TrEMBL record:
<dbReference type="GO" id="GO:0008643">
    <property type="term" value="P:carbohydrate transport"/>
</dbReference>
<protein>
    <submittedName>
        <fullName>MFS transporter</fullName>
    </submittedName>
</protein>
<keyword id="KW-0472">Membrane</keyword>
<feature type="transmembrane region" description="Helical">
    <location>
        <begin position="232"/>
        <end position="257"/>
    </location>
</feature>
<feature type="transmembrane region" description="Helical">
    <location>
        <begin position="263"/>
        <end position="285"/>
    </location>
</feature>
<dbReference type="GO" id="GO:0005886">
    <property type="term" value="C:plasma membrane"/>
</dbReference>
<feature type="transmembrane region" description="Helical">
    <location>
        <begin position="321"/>
        <end position="345"/>
    </location>
</feature>
<feature type="transmembrane region" description="Helical">
    <location>
        <begin position="82"/>
        <end position="102"/>
    </location>
</feature>
<dbReference type="InterPro" id="IPR001927">
    <property type="entry name" value="Na/Gal_symport"/>
</dbReference>
<feature type="transmembrane region" description="Helical">
    <location>
        <begin position="181"/>
        <end position="202"/>
    </location>
</feature>
<dbReference type="InterPro" id="IPR036259">
    <property type="entry name" value="MFS_trans_sf"/>
</dbReference>
<keyword id="KW-0812">Transmembrane</keyword>
<feature type="transmembrane region" description="Helical">
    <location>
        <begin position="297"/>
        <end position="315"/>
    </location>
</feature>
<dbReference type="Pfam" id="PF13347">
    <property type="entry name" value="MFS_2"/>
</dbReference>
<dbReference type="GO" id="GO:0015293">
    <property type="term" value="F:symporter activity"/>
</dbReference>
<feature type="transmembrane region" description="Helical">
    <location>
        <begin position="12"/>
        <end position="34"/>
    </location>
</feature>
<keyword id="KW-1133">Transmembrane helix</keyword>
Length: 453
């Protein structure tokens, strides 16, 4: 079998490259599409996001459990599902942005619910096997850190394309354009499909765990193991909170630049800067993890982001350019979470096997994804309610000063507080320090060797 190498890293990069063409388009622009094109209130959109994300969270666990009951074939256990389900996923993504003129408010609301929930469900069928696959591409901890970094880089590349290009397509004269949204969805859908095919073609599944017997795959045994998995619980909580902040920033930034700064096109610059920040951080990940550890590196990044966004909140009358320059340092800080978090997940999967004897990549990853979806649900609901709460009215060409100040606080003070909470969770509750991860690897290798005897 071909040894682990750059081909696997690039293949894994393409997976999240494909995922995030639609994920970033949806998280950054779907709310403004629903409010300004469909005419749905921000509060109702927030409710839709919350309901859909909670449904998706359940779908993740069900699909993860389903994947774990499948046997590995000649093409692996996870890659075939990425191939099969990517086609309906992309089609459903395009359908979300189809606008039929002249329909009733009830029709638009129903159409939004059906297409958005369908897309979210199909997203689970691709993302769960993709995320689970990292633990079977290589057993080596540093290889997995590289996969996590390349996954983050793939998301960053999608981010730079979507955030740089989408505002230029979906806004015409600073106004949301229905035809522009559909055009963007079709373009990104084609690119996403190409990336999924590259992911399937370039990666290789090398680790084939011993099949669990019937008793071990019972839900009761799995649940007991999950409850005992303290690193899993901590990273679930940290990721949930981080997702709230990440998606809230993405949603609110549209209103911040469109209304507060009066420059929706500047969103393109923000997308570019965020990707540059991640690219700058990426080569620092592997040596920093080898020297300090995953937990230690990501905690420092979270603290930096909390401080930077707090500074932005306190600065009076900051210009668009000044805001972007200062925010870039905050983006650099939270880039480490995005680059390393998937390596956290593979450690947690290994820990689950160590304490239970069960190798349940799909189930454990889906539980982690469950927490992220709950975070998305909270962020979607919180974003809609918060935008409404500060007085945003899509019918007004110019928002009130109180509304603009509220939008600015949502984009700065709230993320600062949330990043600080993530820092505290990692420092005080996540137990897998550099030394403990090293011991985990040796203990697991010893346990597997004993199991063969």
């Amino acid at each position: 079998m071909r040894p682990f190498g750059m081909r696997d890293k690039l293949g894994y990069l393409f997976g999240d490259f494909g995922n995030d063409f639609f994920f970033i388009l949806v998280s950054s622009f779907l709310m403004v599409y629903y409010t300004d094109v469909f005419g749905i209130s921000a509060a109702v959109v927030g409710g839709l996001f919350a309901v859909a994300r909670l449904w998706d969270a359940v779908a993740d666990v069900v699909w993860g459990r389903f994947i774990d009951t499948r046997k590995s074939g000649k093409h692996g256990k996870f890659r075939p599902w990425i191939f099969r389900m990517s086609f309906p996923l992309v089609i459903s993504g395009v359908l979300m942005f189809v606008h039929i003129p002249g329909m009733s408010d009830g029709f638009y609301l129903a159409y939004a619910f059906v297409t958005y929930i369908l897309w979210g469900t199909l997203y689970s069928t691709v993302n769960i096997p993709y995320g689970s696959m990292a633990s079977v591409i290589s057993e080596n901890a540093l290889d997995r850190t590289s996969l996590s970094s390349y996954r983050g880089l793939g998301a960053a590349f999608a981010g730079i394309i979507v955030n740089a290009v989408a505002p230029l397509i979906v806004f015409k004269n600073n106004v949301a354009d229905a035809g522009g949204f559909l055009t963007a969805a079709i373009i990104f859908g084609i690119l996403a499909l190409a990336c999924y095919m590259a992911c399937v073609g370039l990666t290789t599944e090398r680790v084939v765990a011993q099949e669990n017997d019937g008793e071990k795959v019972s839900l009761r045994a799995t649940a007991k193991g999950l409850v005992k998995n303290k690193p899993l619980i901590a990273i679930l909580l940290a990721s949930l909170v981080f997702m709230v902040s990440s998606l809230l920033i993405g949603s609110v930034n549209v209103y911040l630049f469109k209304n507060y700064f009066g420059n929706a096109a500047a969103l393109s610059i923000v997308g570019v800067i965020q990707t540059i920040a991640m690219i700058v951080a990426m080569p620092l990940v592997k040596p920093s993890v080898a020297w300090f550890g995953k937990k230690e590196l990501v905690s420092a990044g979270m603290l930096l982001s909390a401080v930077i966004y707090g500074v932005l909140y306190l600065l009076p009358n900051v210009t668009t350019t000044g805001f972007i320059i200062i925010a870039a340092f905050g983006m650099f800080g939270f880039s480490f979470f995005n680059l390393v978090v998937w390596a956290f997940v593979t450690d947690v999967i290994d820990y689950h096997e160590l304490i239970t004897g069960l190798r349940e990549d799909g189930t454990v990853y889906s539980i982690y994804s469950f927490a992220r979806k709950v975070g998305q649900a909270i962020a979607g609901g919180l974003g809609g309610v918060a935008i409404t709460g500060v007085g945003y009215d899509s019918a007004l060409k110019v928002q009130t000063q109180a509304t603009l100040d509220g939008i600015y606080s949502l984009a700065t003070l709230v993320p600062s507080i949330i990043f600080l909470v993530v820092f505290l969770i990692l420092v005080f509750f996540y137990p897998l320090t550099k030394q403990r991860v090293s011991k985990l690897s040796s203990d697991l290798a010893e346990k597997r060797e004993m199991g063969k005897k």
